[in-house]
Design the sequence.
């Protein structure tokens, strides 16, 4: 099923630049692996903010939590999940 | 460009059932026409609420406002728009 | 999977008493049928408020939305859904 | 009587990993002891967040505060308690 | 045990004056009976607002909800309950 | 006159334990002196939170501010004051 | 003592114009009488809003509530009171 | 001086269409007159909402309030004003 | 023209006491100079909080910003400004 | 198209003064370059706050995000973007 997720990143201003770069590289790789296997079908930057709206496609709340809590940036993010359903007007439903 | 839109429907409890059905039928037709021509690429029901998350793909704020303010349900909805950008981790970007 | 749901009831003050009683009787029957078939395992009154916290156990967001939007009181409620996962400290997990 | 509790964990990013592991081990042991003796009948992870919804079953507000303020993570959590009552539609009431 | 309760009254502006007076008289009698039997030990007006802070002393969440939902003004109030515990500095504890 | 006060304590996690104990001892002594002389007639712990609801009985806003700003924990608290009046249903009024 | 008060007026759109004019005339007379006797020393319009910031100078919370609840517009206003104290930098203190 | 103003329009759903059209025509004429004389230099629609961001250029808070409270839609709008100053980076300052 | 200002002070808990005293002395001198020249006609402590409500009387938003941003405590304050206008019931208007 | 942007600056109190001056100089140069090429047509200080309201004129959400995230102060700002459209009453439209 689908879940809508908003993630707001709060990196400490004094994070070591090298550590920061490594963290962001791991985050990108982690995200792209989930995008490729179909479990993270959408990710958009919120224009002007260090934040994103994403859609996840998983089997359960447990799988969703496992994926999100495994994000390298998880300790630095505020996250809010909204469960989705098929909209009756959706032409692809 | 892409815009993320949340729409919350507040229909008056005393709306005439026939009027309500006609209104919802027009809303559905209007939405599906925009979905078919590619300007409303995503619409999801927020599970448990009379609300949706949508993504619009339009040329400008003017076009976006024209589409949304033309919705048959527009007078009965609270709407909030968030502009989107390409996420640097998006594998389709 | 499990979903946590908060429901706040806002009945119009001028609702006909007979209509109100019939509505509440249908709500109770609907809720108890879902409790009996295991899809609504918990329902608690929030003390002092016309509101409840509930837990639903369903297969998908679609099933959840179908159950909630079918509630006789649905047009009169504010509803917020939070998806749940197994807690690592849960002794029953 | 029953209380609904939401706990949001805010661990400092620079907490020593060994100290953190010890803290979480003590938290788990503390929670499981209360689950086993029946005073913490439900605990669910909020999917995607470092937070939980719990239900406590205690004799009084004093007992509730003693249990919650004794949590090893108490200094690192935002906590909100809502008192519960039996719902008139609850089939187990 | 003790519960802190905030009640905000929202009477409809078009309520019949006679009906309003009768309602308020019943509310006062109901409240004073509970004050006399010790279950509503404190009630204060919030200065400048049609609202009160109260403290209830009851056996359980069920008893609390029964008392509050029986208030003649209950359909016209927003109510929020906070459970209390003994403060370690309280000289009467 | 009476004032309702909510105090939320935010002690820094890295406060020296000895300093913390001394601070809390001074806070307790200060509070109990005001309770004994009748100016702090009520103090309740908010169950599950490091916070209290209190009622102060003082001559003026100046006296109230002098008492609250003199609290040893004042630099570590969020405080909100609400002025009270006699409730027309209060049987002790 | 001094109290800071914010008042937001919410007149029903369908109020009879004659009734509205009479109501506002009574409000003005009531306010000016209190201004003249010194108990309502300041009243400012909040620019662009149907609202005001006021300062009252009264003996007690009871007197404050009596004055405010006697306002002809009281049933149509949202009101919030903040108790004031002398500021240590005030040159007139 | 300059003021930033947000206006949210809340027209009643049952407003007579003729009355509504006349009201909107008067609002447009009123706004355009102020735009032409330089006191309302900017007005933008908030995309997707029945709302606008505006900038007013007036001599005083009194003049601002007179202009805004004279808007034909004033009784149907939520309005919030923010005073502006020259930004030190503004190349036109 | 007049502006209503709320200032909330957030001094860091670890500020050097000597530095703190010097800062507060400079703040007081700065405030009193503006009070004496008539541009800061009112300042009240919000009872129980490290905050004040003030009224400024200045020529423009630019002058207001220059005065406020020059406050020695400016880097440590949350500030919110509301523009004022003459109230039609004000007997001094 | 046009976007309305609010930026709130939160510089750490312990930022090195030299570093701070250099940062602000780079911010100013960056902003003025965008003002000169027409992509940042308006910038106003919010009177009394370390914040601004701006209007950007860009081709897309991607261009907007690139400009804003490139601001030297970006890591120290809370930013909120609102998409704009032509207002039907705008005399310049």
Sequence:
């Amino acid at each position: 099923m689908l879940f809508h997720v908003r993630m707001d990143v709060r990196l400490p201003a004094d994070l070591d630049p090298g550590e920061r770069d490594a963290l962001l590289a791991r985050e990108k790789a982690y995200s792209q692996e989930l995008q490729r296997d179909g479990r993270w079908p959408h990710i958009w930057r919120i224009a002007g903010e260090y934040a994103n709206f994403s859609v996840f496609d998983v089997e359960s709340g447990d799988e969703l939590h496992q994926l999100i809590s495994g994000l390298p940036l998880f300790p630095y993010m505020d996250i809010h999940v909204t469960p989705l359903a098929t909209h009756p007007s959706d032409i692809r439903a």
Observations:
- Chain F has a mean pLDDT of 97.
